[in-house]
Design a protein that fits this description.
The chain has about 260 residues and is mostly beta strands. The protein has helices spanning about 1-15, 25-35; strands at about 50-55, 60-65, 75-85, 90, 95-100, 110-115, 125-145, 150-160, 165-170, 170-175, 180-185, 195, 200-205, 215-220, 225-230, 230-235, 245-255.
């Protein structure tokens, strides 16, 4: 259709329905070819999209050194989801977006925190905490193919009911098309089985849903009026750490910017 409009416009310049000099075959063929090569299916996805992740092992230490995904772009949101049990010293250039401690009686210093790199670039970074304790690092890269990624808000919740495996996430409704909701859940003790992400969300972390992980990360890209929520399920039904235990949950909202 675009090519036909070009042809009609060039013909109108002459006024008699013919192309004249402006309609040299080489020029028109090139314009038609260029227009037809832009297939609808080749357009990048709109809104904020998940791109990649890397993760470190669960450790008991005062520091953890983990490489980010390769190919991070300057307009990306490069995020670090950190499970920790002591005050954090982030690498230079990272800022805290949100944090939530466990409020139950078991381990009140157990927390999940999310940081963002202000000038994102791929690399290897060391995360430190004040004392040697449990910690785990998961990096997430999100991208807007047509602009920037803007951190909009966060919401949090806690699990203090020791008799159920569900860690209920905050319910957050999208106010902009293409919002990216990143959901993070941590459990004080290791699950004894599968660690499931909320229904309708996509798990990000690969090994975070196995024994000793204590950290789950998932995401959902939403249209206006759609909501994220649901529950992470720590199926800790047997063994020394049964029944399920206290936890802390965070949802962070990222919107497409200009």
């Amino acid at each position: 259709q675009f090519a036909h409009v070009v042809v009609r416009h060039l013909a109108a310049l002459r006024g008699d329905g013919h192309l004249g000099r402006l309609g040299r075959p080489g020029v028109i063929r090139g314009m038609v070819s260029a227009a037809c090569s832009r297939s609808v299916g080749s357009s990048p996805a709109t809104g904020v999209q998940y791109v990649a992740m890397t993760e470190g092992a669960f450790v008991t230490s005062s520091s953890s050194t983990v490489a980010t995904p390769a190919g991070v772009q300057s307009a990306d949101a490069l995020l670090c989801v950190l499970m920790h049990r002591s005050a954090v010293t982030p690498p230079s250039g990272w800022v805290l977006l949100a944090t939530r401690d466990v409020l139950g009686s078991e381990q009140p210093d157990h927390a999940v925190s999310v940081y963002q790199m202000t000038a994102p670039s791929s690399g290897t970074y060391t995360w430190s905490q004040a004392a040697s304790a449990r910690m785990r690092v998961v990096y997430v890269v999100a991208r807007n193919n047509y602009g920037s990624v803007v951190f909009s808000s966060s919401a949090s919740s806690n699990k203090t009911d020791l008799g159920t495996p569900q860690h209920i996430m905050p319910t957050v409704t999208a106010v902009a098309s293409g919002e990216f909701h990143m959901q993070c859940s941590t459990c004080v003790y290791s699950p004894g089985g599968a660690y499931q992400s909320p229904t309708g969300s996509t798990a990000i972390s690969g090994s975070a849903f196995d024994v000793d992980s204590r950290l789950g990360v998932a995401y959902k890209t939403l249209a206006v009026g759609e909501s994220s929520g649901g529950s992470f399920v720590h199926a800790n039904s047997s063994g020394a750490n049964a029944p399920p235990h206290d936890g802390a949950e965070l949802t962070l909202v990222f919107s497409p910017g200009a």
